[in-house]
Amino acid sequence: MQDTRTIHQNYPVPVADNFLQDDVGRLAQAFTAVDADVHLLRQHQATADSRILTLQQDVAHPTAVDIRYTDGRVSGMTETFADGQRTTQYQYDTETNQLTQVDVVFRGSRETTTLNYDNDTLTGLTTKTESVSDR
Known about the structure:
This is YD repeat-containing protein. It comes from Vibrio quintilis. This protein is an alpha+beta fold. The protein folds into 2 domains: 1-59, no CATH class; 64-131. 30% of the residues lie in helices and 40% in strands. It has one helix spanning 20-60; strands at 64-70, 73-81, 84-92, 99-106, 109-118, 121-131. It has a 6-stranded antiparallel beta sheet with strand order 1-2-3-4-5-6, with no helix packed on it. Strand 1 and strand 2 (73-81) form a beta hairpin. The chain is elongated and about 85 Å long.
């Protein structure tokens, strides 16, 4: 009897030269193994779906938003989520009124993005992330 197997999962594969009585048991083993693997994949998928849903709810749907304005421009924003607040501060060049820096503090880190201009054209962004302690 030949014992041919699949490449990735090592499932038994029937072989034309084998006796049917030998391959029936091998097919039963293969179906049982496939059933167990599919069950495990579905469990992992359900766990991943649950985590993604939780992240989407936390990040995409704040329970409150406070937007602050200074001189007719957005100067800051605080978004409240189930696990804390995300605070964003905007800084502008006083002469050109161009946005020059954005600071975001959320879940223990601060991300600072600096916007670079050549006259009125945005030429680049630099972002730095650092850990911050909760206050």
